[in-house]
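Final report, Chapter 2: Outcomes

The project's central promise was a pipeline that accepts a single protein chain and returns its three-dimensional structure in a standardized token representation, suitable for archiving and comparison. That pipeline is now operational. To close this chapter, we reproduce one record exactly as it appears in the project archive, with the input sequence first and the structure output second.
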Amino acid sequence: MYVPPMFKVEEDAAWQIVLDAGAGMLVITTDSGLASVFVPVMPSEDRRTVRFHVARANPWWKAVSEGTEVLGLFLVASAYVSPNLYPSRSESPGVVPTWNYVACELRGVLHLHDDLEWTSQQVHELTDHFESGNTPPWRVEDSPAEYIGHQLTAIVGLEIEVTSIQGKAKMSQNRPEIDHDNVREHFTTGSWSEQNAASRMNLDK
């Protein structure tokens, strides 16, 4: 991922993008070409690994062998920026459309965990994480044990041993302050994706 210094985020912020996204696109190279899967993920506390699972029926995991390289892509903000939102263009008309976004790319190698104990632990951790904001939170134990057991046999666990991570926040920092602020103000009353971008533009100054 190309990241000019102005748009670079620190490693902690890059990991926060992964956490905020909750799910991402994971891409591998197979004998038939590139293959992707979109899945919810759970980083480990030490940030060395990212755990997830896929459906056993999904052929993606069957192309994975121990040590397969993977590229993970995570996006938490995305919005089109029209040159009409730049007040400064009245004096400097040389402007073009662009896109504001906050994204993260991580790379690593894959490890398969095709056993019920590992997948059960991963499912519990993932569920507890995403249910933590709900009152009351739903628990895996709220479903019959026989049903959960059947569901666990239908998935395969995987783990990314992370080798690198980098984040990017391109949020009009390269524009004059009057343009940056006008884009943010316009986004605050726009679509859901624009409002989301606006909330993150408040953090980039």
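Archive annotation: The beta strands are 8-9, 23-30, 33-40, 42-43, 49-55, 69-81, 98-113, 155-170.
This record, like all others produced under the grant, will remain available to the consortium after the project formally closes.
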